[in-house]
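Why does residue order matter? Because the sequence determines the fold. Keep that principle in mind as you read this record.
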Amino acid sequence: MSEELLKLAVRMQLVLVAPRRRDERGDVPGWVMVTVMTAGLVVLIWGLAKDQLGQMLEDALGSVKG
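Structure:
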């Protein structure tokens, strides 16, 4: 009987310690939230600094042209 208990204890230890299989899909709601928040920040920043960002882009392109 003690040998069976030892085997059971070893199996339970392996189940508790063994790495769990991870879901391959990842954290979909988390990525959706990050994407939506990033898009919101881009819209907010663009709305606040449209003129300055446009001027920076024109300056950068002008300096590349020569």
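The chain has three helices and no strands.
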